[in-house]
Design goal:
It contains six helices and eight strands, in the order E-E-H-H-H-E-E-E-H-E-H-E-E-H. Helix 1 packs across helix 3. It has a domain of 126 residues: Aminopeptidase (3-Layer(aba) Sandwich), CATH 3.40.630. Strand 7 and strand 8 form a beta hairpin.
């Protein structure tokens, strides 16, 4: 794939991160509530973190190992979060992950973004399986996975270590065969 894909839904645009996203990225990710329920988002979040993430996203796309999409409101193209697919080409699968700015929680936007990314993963990338996980303290993320048709596959005790604490995670998955039956 030579150019980064752009996916449109009824309320969103999912596309490439840009340097213009840095101010809103820093603003949204300076919220400790987001860092508390995600694995790799530091708190406090700085401009340097945002620039590093954008560079990482670009390098991963070039290496064809990871698609990291900006989530934007369709009406004004404002940056409100990220959704990504970490590819495991050998096994024809991907891990889905996402975060959304707190003012946009509870509106079905992540579910909308995730469903469109799942379509992209199965139909454009021709993958066989999508997995996702969430820490137990973030049940809203699990609800998104269920709304997208994903099935609970496991529970891993003290699987994640962050800020001197271990967290349990719940793992979900969906195969292409299961997806076609939704």
């Amino acid at each position: 794939m030579e150019t980064f894909p752009s996916i449109k839904t009824s309320r969103l645009i999912l596309d490439e991160l840009t340097l213009a996203d840095v101010p809103l990225m820093v603003k949204h990710l300076s919220n400790p509530a987001i860092a508390a329920v995600t694995l790799n988002i530091p708190y406090p979040y700085s401009e340097k973190d945002a620039l590093s993430w954008i560079y990482h996203a670009d390098q991963c796309f070039k290496a064809e190992s990871h698609f990291i999409f900006a989530i934007r409101q369709k009406k004004d193209k404002a940056f409100i979060g990220c959704i990504s697919l970490a590819l495991d080409k050998r096994h024809h699968r991907t891990e889905l992950s996402y975060w959304l700015a707190e003012p946009f929680w509870g509106k079905g936007l992540v579910t909308e973004a995730a469903k469109s990314i799942m379509y992209f993963a199965f139909n454009t990338l021709q993958l066989n399986k999508i997995t996702a996980n969430h820490i137990v303290e973030n049940p809203a993320s699990g609800k998104v996975m269920v709304k997208c048709g994903m099935l609970k596959e496991g529970y891993l005790k003290q699987h994640i270590h962050k800020k001197d604490r271990f967290y349990d995670i719940v793992i979900y998955g969906l195969t292409k065969e299961e997806y076609t039956k939704l």
